[in-house]
Design a protein that fits this description.
200 residues, SH3 type barrels, six-stranded antiparallel β-sheet, Ribonuclease P protein subunit p29, elongated, 2 domains, alpha+beta
Length: 200
């Protein structure tokens, strides 16, 4: 083991080499404290920004024809199993649609429900040509329903200025399209306020 004088000389020489700009008096001042802290600054790691996964734009979706239904697929019978699934989904959602169920409770559930597969009828409309259209909802967009009729015709019916009715297990509900201008995903998270009267 080195003696105290040799150790002191080593530390002094080490500090002189490490801090050439410091004066001997300052180095001596550090030594009088009898504690030398050797600081090490690790290199800063640059954080890589996470890239958000980009979905398709509306233009790209149109070009890829993602939401278009091929003419050979536009058959009412093909989508009847979808309607059966929808009926079971609504029964589960409304706890069975029992005769003693409260109508306002069922209405509140239906407001947030998914209507893909529901059979609806246009009962009122400012455009008379839409009245009477009945079919299964294949697609719901913010402003329109795409409905396949029993005649295997795909109808694009706007929500605005139209009233739709749907019937399930004897319970008839009305959808006021003018108050329904939302996407299905947005509607499920929206809080609806009960209003006394609704018109077209």
């Amino acid at each position: 083991p080195q003696g105290s004088e040799k150790a002191k000389t080593f530390v002094h020489t080490f500090l002189k080499r490490s801090m050439p700009r410091m004066k001997d008096e300052d180095i001596q001042d550090i030594l009088t404290r009898k504690a030398v802290v050797l600081k090490h600054y690790p290199p800063k790691k640059t954080k890589q920004k996470r890239r958000k996964t980009k979905g398709f734009t509306a233009k790209e979706r149109r070009e890829l024809r993602l939401f278009e239904i091929e003419p050979e697929q536009q058959k009412y019978a093909i989508f009847l199993p979808l309607h059966e699934l929808w009926k079971q989904y609504i029964r589960d959602l409304c706890h069975g649609l029992k005769p003693d169920a409260q109508p306002h409770m069922i209405q509140s559930k239906l407001l947030k429900a998914d209507f893909h597969g529901a059979i609806v009828t246009v009962t009122k409309s400012k455009c008379p040509s839409y009245v009477g259209i009945t079919g299964i909802i294949l697609q719901e967009f913010k402003h329109v329903f795409k409905i396949i009729t029993k005649e295997d015709k795909l109808k694009v019916v706007p929500k605005l200025n139209n009233v739709f009715s749907l019937e399930l297990d004897g319970f008839i509900s009305y959808i006021y399209g003018s108050k329904f201008l939302l996407r299905a995903s947005e509607r499920s998270a929206k809080k609806f306020k009960l209003k006394g009267s609704i018109d077209l």
